[in-house]
Amino acid sequence: AQSVAQPEDQVNVAEGNPLTVKCTYSVSGNPYLFWYVQYPNRGLQFLLKYITGDNLVKGSYGFEAEFNKSQTSFHLKKPSALVSDSALYFCAVRDMAGGYQKVTFGTGTKLQVIP
Amino acid sequence: ETGVTQSPTHLIKTRGQQVTLRCSSQSGHNTVSWYQQALGQGPQFIFQYYREEENGRGNFPPRFSGLQFPNYSSELNVNALELDDSALYLCASSPGLAGVGVEQYFGPGTRLTVT
Question: What tens digit of pLDDT does each residue of B24-42 get?
Answer without folding.
Answer: 998 889 999 999 999 889 9
